[in-house]
Amino acid sequence: MAQFEFDAELWLYPGKGGWHFVTLPTDIAGEIRFTAEPKKRGWGSEAVVARTGDTEWTTSIFPDKGSGSFLLPVKAEVRRKEHLTTGQTVKIALTLDRA
């Protein structure tokens, strides 16, 4: 199972919905593309298990043409539990979910 750790800034999507994301570093995105099963999921997404602090959640990362990387959505529940705010640098552990 491919595992990655990185630090990234939490940012708020400027459109409707109030979605918060971190953008994966491009080197990690390249490794994920190399190890991922092509076209297995919709929109080029990859299932992952993410962790920050003591909180772990299952989600998907989505390709982002603007950054050439992937975006990881950070749920409101996770932000509340870990006291995360927009602009904060967050330590993320990410595992590709092959289940």
From TrEMBL:
SUPFAM superfamilies with a match to the protein in the record: AF2212/PG0164-like
Domain of life (superkingdom): Bacteria
InterPro entries according to UniProt: AF2212/PG0164-like_sf, DUF1905
Pfam family, one: DUF1905
Protein name, entry field: DUF1905 domain-containing protein
